[in-house]
Amino acid sequence: MWPHDRLPVGVTLSATMFIVAITIIRLALPRRTSVFGRLINALMVFDAAAALLREPVIARRVAGAVPGGLPTVFDAWHWLTVMAWACGLGMVLLHQYGPVRYRIRFRIVIGLSAVVGVVFLALSDPARAQGMSSIADYGGWRYGIYIALCSAPPVIVSSYYNVQTSRGAVGRTTTLRERIVLAVLLLFGIASLLPAVSAAVSAASDAAGVGNAFTHNLYSVMSDGITSGEPGLCFFTAVVVVLVPSSVRAVVQLLRLDRDSRGARRVYPLWRDLTAAAPQVVFRLRWADQWNASPRERLHRRRMEIHDAAEIVARYVLPLPTDVDELIETTVDEDDQERIRSVAELAVAAERLTGNGGEPTGEPSVYRGEVPDERTLLRLWQPAKSLLFATGLGAEHRKHQSAT
Question: Which residue among 73, 251, 364, 400 sits deepest, i.e. has the most Cβ atoms within 10 Å of its Cβ?
């Protein structure tokens, strides 16, 4: 449908759905709080919307509901591409000026990008009036300005990034290898400018009357690529591929399969028992804050609450009965006997406080128990509860006896 399309629909549609899928995954997951992360998300939203409108199968359906029809859709997806490049420039500005000083410059960039969208609509107005599918069918000087505006953002972003990178890196290169790497990066940056520069030189040559078949064909190839959007689609697909690992990690976090989430599940039984005995240590978050908290934050908060609850429960521990001591001496390895006594004392006190609704039954005990470290608590909490259950001090045993 669009002029100069070359790739099969299956290829472009697959690339489009890939971009949209990664974008949805990133937006559906807990928000990234960094400014750079928000710029990445904004870039992907603009990129995904542009890819959808670029796809002819989707563009035909949208055109019926948009004033101006297909030419307006054509302008919209080119403008969305410009906005995606504007977000890319925002990342460069953020890296160069920091999270505060970059804001004014980035607002100027966004404002200019919005003006470009209005100019697109003005340039394609004759194409809409004549019922054409896009300004590419109309041609003329309007189409030349249109192509220049479409190709300007990648040229600006690439040039600015290369200048800033080379200026900051030249003084830091000390070895031949570093100089070679820097030269390769600069050559790559220059190569990324060649398509737009070639199109501009060819157009200028033809306009000045000194062009030839080569410059005319070169301009046609470059403008056709920009008009079809297929090179840009391939480029943004490659960019999105770079974001796949971070998206996969985010999905793993959402499913609670990451390392920190597994750690939170591992400490949950200990956290549950101790915070039931000292509920005042639990900091209740709003639902939105709880949802947006990272697995690392949740694990850290749970570990801190275990520590605080254990300190409170330790004030009310009592010496273990003789039968429990004897059972520990006969069934527990000698190296762990003192540790499991401390854990068992803490478990008995926790059950006693839990049975009273988390309220102490009296004054703190003169006999203050030692609070084991977290690793010891995690390793010996369940074995200590099993010993208490065997001697009739466990809460599960008492519940069973009361039920019978």
Answer: 73
Tell which residue, 351, 278, 349, has the closest CA to residue 320: 349
Which residue has tokens 């639990």? 282
Task: Please write the tens of the pLDDT for every residue from 220-239.
Answer: 666 666 667 777 787 778 77
d(CA 57, CA 9): 9
Token pair in block for residue 338: 């003192």
Q: What is the pTM of this model?
A: 0.63
Are 315 and 368 in contact, with CB atoms under 8 Å apart?
A: yes
Which residues are CB-neighbours of 233 under 8 A, at least 6 positions away?
A: 12, 15, 16, 51, 54
Check: CB of residue 205 under 8 Å from CB of residue 215: yes
Give the least confident one: 20-24, 293-297, 298-302, 312-316.
293-297
Asked if residue 250 lies in contact with residue 26, where contact means CB atoms within 8 angstroms, the answer is yes
Comparing CA positions, the residue from 10, 55, 21 lying closest to residue 233 is 55
Task: Report d(CA 47, CA 66) in Å as an integer.
Answer: 20
218 pLDDT more than 90: no
Half-sphere exposure of 141 (CA within 13 A, CB side): 2
